[in-house]
Amino acid sequence: MSAHKTHGVKKESILAAALKVAREGGLRSANVRAVAKEAGTSPASVLYYFNSMDELINRALEHVMDQFYVDRRVQIQDLHSPLQKIAELIRLGVPDEVTEDMRLLYEISVSLARFPQFAPKLRAIHDEQLNMYREVIEQGVESGDFTPLPDVATVSRNLLAIEDTYDFYPIIGMTVSRAELRHNVRAYAEVALQCTLP
């Protein structure tokens, strides 16, 4: 195996270790020593690949971002109808289970006073999801499937805000059925877009 490949594998293992430590113990537990121990390497090796814990957590957050944006975009790319795309975005946006990665992202969101360095990454995650909703709704306007009330930007923001709020419910111990919550988001989408979702 080449040196380049060896470095790549080790770097990925450190990223995975950082995510595991942060998931299990929260951001406060994510320090160089804890990550090194989880990865089975030395603190010096962690700092060889990443200049600081902030850089390491930011890179780990890029992995978490995949759930919120990249994976969802892949899931809808083969769907032709904007109606199908919105229905699928809602299904993926309010999943049956809030994953540990999602919990980590929400922990960071409510802890920005302590971790302001992560605000740009969170804004990027938000903006990419918002743009995805906006693109699909604009496609639906062009096809005649949607007539947004009051406008595309507002409906997009509201859909994302409702989705984010419902994903926070399990974290604070609210036990409303996930199916019921998805139904609520769909109901809003149908009223706001003046459509019937499949």
Describe this protein's structure.
The protein has 198 residues and is mainly alpha-helical. The protein has helices spanning 3-25, 32-39, 43-49, 53-76, 82-93, 100-109, 119-143, 152-168, 178-193. Helix 1 packs across helix 2 (32-39), helix 1 (3-25) packs across helix 6 (100-109) and helix 4 (53-76) packs parallel to helix 7. The longest helix has 25 residues, at 119-143. The relative contact order is 0.11. The model is unreliable at 1-9 (pLDDT under 50).
Write the layout of secondary structure elements.
Blueprint (H helix, E strand, L loop, with lengths): L2 H23 L6 H8 L3 H7 L3 H24 L5 H12 L6 H10 L9 H25 L8 H17 L9 H16 L5
Helix pairs in contact: 1-2, 1-4, 1-6, 2-3, 4-5, 4-7, 5-7, 5-9, 7-8, 8-9
Describe this protein with a few key phrases:
9 helices; mainly alpha; disordered N terminus; elongated; 198 residues
* Number of beta-strand segments: 0
**Can you write the helix and strand succession as a string?**
HHHHHHHHH
* Range of helix content: over 70%
Shape: elongated
Low-confidence stretches: 1-9
Strand content: under 5%
Task: Give a short account of the largest sheet.
Answer: none
Our count of helices gives 9
Distance between the amino and carboxyl termini:
50 Å
Helix/sheet category = mainly alpha
Radius of gyration: 19 Å
Average pLDDT level: 86
